[in-house]
Automatic annotation (TrEMBL):
Keywords of the record: Membrane, Transmembrane, Transmembrane helix
A Gene Ontology cellular-component term: plasmodesma
Residue intervals passing through the bilayer: 6-32
Signal peptide: none
Record localization: Membrane
Native species: Papaver atlanticum
Keyword Protein transport in record: no
Single biological process term from Gene Ontology: defense response to other organism
Protein name per the record: Late embryogenesis abundant protein LEA-2 subgroup domain-containing protein
Top-rank taxon, per record: Eukaryota
Iron keyword on record: no
C-alpha cells in the first residue's frame, strides 16, 4: 500500500517537473526572440518650437527610427504602432504608423513627423528647464513608441502578440535656423549621434 502511494507521488512529481519544463521552454522560445529587437533614433530635426503670448506651443519635429531584427531564424510582425514625443513634462501629438513585417537580420526605418499646437503652461522645474533651454536654443526631447510585436518562428508557428513600450531619449536638439544651430553637434553635417532606445516588454 505504501509503495503504491509512493509510486503515485513520484509519478505526479515527474509530471509536474516535465510540465514545468515544457512551459518554461515555451515561454523561453516566445520571449527570447524579442531580446534581439533593437530601436535607435538615427536622425532628428526640430524646425519649429516656440511659445506664443497666449501660452500655446507650436512645434514641428521629424525623426528617423531604425528597428533592427537581429534574429537569424525568427521573423517579426509589428502592429498598432503609435508614437509621440514628450518634453518638459508634457506629451505632444500622437501619430499612428503603418504595421509591417520584418525578415531575419533586417532593418526597417520609421519616419514619424510630429507637428501641431498645444497649450503649454509650465511650472516649477519644467518651466526653469524650458527657460534655460530656450536661452541656449537647445531643447530636450523624448520620443515614445507603443506597439504590439509577434514572432513568427522558422517552422511557421506564430507566437503570442505582446505589447511593448519603447522610450527614446533624452535627445538635445537645436532649433534649426536659430543662431545656435551653427554649432549643432547632434544634427548638422550628418553629425547626429544615434540615440539608443529602451524597450519595455516581456520580462526576461
Amino acid at each position: 500500500m505504501g509503495d503504491g502511494r509512493f509510486g503515485v507521488y513520484c509519478g505526479c512529481s515527474c509530471l509536474l517537473i516535465i510540465g514545468g519544463g515544457v512551459l518554461c521552454l515555451i515561454i523561453f522560445l516566445n520571449i527570447l526572440p524579442f531580446k534581439a529587437i533593437k530601436f535607435h533614433i538615427i536622425d532628428a530635426s526640430l524646425t519649429e518650437f516656440y511659445v506664443t503670448n497666449d501660452v500655446v506651443l507650436h512645434y514641428n519635429l521629424a525623426v528617423n527610427i531604425s528597428v533592427r531584427n537581429s534574429n537569424k531564424m525568427d521573423r517579426m510582425s509589428y502592429h498598432g504602432i503609435r508614437s509621440n514625443p514628450s518634453c518638459y513634462g508634457r506629451d505632444l501629438s500622437t501619430v499612428s504608423l503603418p504595421s509591417f513585417r520584418q525578415g531575419t537580420k533586417n532593418t526597417t526605418l520609421l519616419h514619424p513627423v510630429f507637428q501641431g499646437q498645444i497649450l503649454f503652461k509650465l511650472g516649477g522645474s519644467h518651466l526653469r528647464d524650458f527657460n534655460n533651454d530656450q536661452r541656449d536654443g537647445i531643447y530636450k526631447m523624448d520620443v515614445n513608441l507603443y506597439l504590439t510585436l509577434q514572432v513568427k518562428h522558422a517552422g511557421g508557428d506564430k507566437g503570442v502578440k505582446l505589447p511593448f513600450t519603447v522610450n527614446c531619449g533624452l535627445m538635445r536638439l537645436h532649433l534649426l535656423g536659430s543662431s545656435s544651430s551653427s554649432n549643432n553637434q547632434t544634427r548638422i553635417g550628418g553629425l547626429f549621434k544615434p540615440t539608443r532606445c529602451k524597450a519595455n516588454g516581456p520580462p526576461a
